[in-house]
Amino acid sequence: MFKRRHLLFSSPFFVFGLLFVLLLASIVMAAGFGPVSVPFKQTFVLLLEKLAFPVDSTAGERERLVIEQVRLPRVLVGALVGAALGISGASMQGLFRNPLVEPGYVGVSSGAAAGAVCALYFGLTHLGVWLLPAAAFTGALFAVCVILAVWRWSSRSTVTTLLLLGIGLNALLSAVINILVASSRNEQELRSIIFWLQGGLEARTWGHVQLIALPILISCVLLCTFARDLNLLLLGDEHAQSSGMKVRAVRYLILGLASLMTGSAVAVSGIIGFVGLVVPHMIRLWTGPDHRVLLPASALGGAIFLVVADLISRMVLQPVTLQVGVVCALIGAPLFLGMVLKSGKGAVA
């Protein structure tokens, strides 16, 4: 009886259905709660109206403005960023066959941080509102290109070498960022840099949603098509090659898609940790290691995690707003430590 119930709760239909409902509920709650609270029913009707459903809303002009122009873009950016980090973390953990890997380990997050900090330090953000995310994405792309180029020409082109190169580049870029922070010319510049490095979703607009929606959604779909390849890579490179897979080409494609999503996400949110590390672990404990379920479930789980974390960051210390990156660390670190302890002898499941 217990086994039958466990199979039901871990079936793909149940997993995706429950995660979708939780994501919808978290979006409605996050859009409705705040200094100007909007009832759950009115928020839900306004969202349906936004999706062109034939419904009549009784919300006033103030509530409509708050939901549609202030909160909803922020919530959707959070959901897209969380989905990108969640599925990227799951794919890279499968690619490296290492449960402690997250997207930032190959230098994507550090590259984005370096690009954004350079834009803030040299005052380039005054040239346009989109220059900061553009600089962050350029830095992420540069970091990935450097890592892949060095890995391509190294004598040992293994995943371990790639991981070590990422750790080295992260250290180098962190040193560059620390130099820029230490030499900041004024307090406002320093506050802007620290604020971005902590990760946040403040003042996100529909323009930010449009900027990242297409690359993240397309990359998510394409990455899910590599689920079978990731399952084979879990068995080892030799087994994957004997099955007809071009291991090196598949690694490049998976790394490229994961880096594109992570770079797009970090470009509009700043550095947000633990989503790509903790969420895939939680989903894997629930569904198992099959990437056909793990990848889309991690995307949904990451979206839920970040939307809820952003809601907590806005509500827990009103009127003070915490950075969502700080809240993710406060939630994610204890969860991760608990999973390590639960797995026994420090080995993560």
How many domains, in number, for the residues? 1
Mean pLDDT: 84
Helix % is over 70%
The CATH superfamily is known as ABC transporter involved in vitamin B12 uptake, BtuC
CATH architecture: Orthogonal Bundle
CATH class: Mainly Alpha
The overall strand count is 0
Main sheet, how many strands, which sense, barrel? none
CA gyration radius, whole angstroms: 21 Å
Shape by Cα distribution: globular
H and E string: HHHHHHHHHHHHHHH
Q: Termini distance?
A: 25 Å
The number of distinct helices, counting runs of at least 4 residues, comes to 15
Q: Show unreliable segments.
A: none
Keywords: Cell membrane, Membrane, Transmembrane, Transmembrane helix, Transport
InterPro entries: ABC_BtuC-like, ABC_transptr_permease_BtuC
Subcellular location: Cell membrane
Protein name: ABC transporter permease
Descriptive labels:
349 residues, mainly alpha, 15 helices, 75% helix
Q: What does the model show?
A:
It is found in: Cell membrane. This is ABC transporter permease. Keywords: Cell membrane, Membrane, Transmembrane, Transmembrane helix, Transport. Belongs to the binding-protein-dependent transport system permease family. FecCD subfamily. InterPro entries: ABC_BtuC-like, ABC_transptr_permease_BtuC. By secondary structure, the protein is an all-alpha fold. The protein has a single domain, classed as ABC transporter involved in vitamin B12 uptake, BtuC. Helices cover about 75% and strands about 0% of the residues. The chain contains 15 helices and no strands. The chain has helices spanning about 1-10, 10-30, 40-50, 60-95, 110-120, 130-155, 160-180, 185-200, 205-225, 225-235, 235-240, 245-270, 275-285, 290-315, 325-345. Helix 5 crosses helix 6. The longest helix is centred in the N-terminal third of the chain and has 36 residues, at about 60-95. The protein is globular. The protein starts with a helix and ends in a 6-residue tail after the last helix.
